[in-house]
Design goal:
Distance between the termini: 35 Å
CATH architecture of the largest domain: Orthogonal Bundle
Number of helices: 7
Strand order of the largest sheet: 1-3-2
Number of strands: 3
Strand content: 5-15%
Number of domains: 2
Largest sheet: 3 strands, antiparallel
Structural class: mainly alpha
Helix content: 55-70%
CATH topology of the largest domain: Arc Repressor Mutant, subunit A
CATH class of the largest domain: Mainly Alpha
Radius of gyration: 22 Å
Length: 189
Amino acid sequence: MADTPGLPAFLETSANGAPPGALADYQTAVAGYTAAGAHETIQRIVTALNRISKRLDSYYREQFSELNLQRGDWGVLAELALHGPDGSSTPSRLADITGVSPSTMTHRLDQLVERGLVQRAPDPENRTRMKVRLTRAGLELFRKSVVDADVTEGDVLSALDHNEQEQLASLLEKVLVSQPPRRRHFPST
């Protein structure tokens, strides 16, 4: 893909004239999507975001395994730490947010209670409902995980200086708050 219009010079080739493996795979994917009719710049962005996301997902899976957590456990801990009004939520809201059935959430909460990471108590405003909140151990695990992940996330972005990271964050936030894409419907053949 050397001398491909639109690609920055640092993506063209390595010192020996051949792109490194991951870069070559990226360039091949972008070229394939472009050859199929896609816009090159959009495919560069989407393909890069997808590959960075996969790299981070691989790290997060490893981190969760070391912490004896499932991805769904993390969803509960993060929701309670970041978004729960007064630091609590209901099991049904947690099930909705994490995309699981109420019975799956009940089982997950049982395990997190058993590990001392969350506690359940009757809702003082509606005694027919339960409230779930993080314990001190749950909050400490959440904070430790965030700090540990921040180091790796920083490493992933270390090719950018501080100003470039700020610019990328602003651009991605602009995309994030924009209208969701409309689904293009193709006529039946």
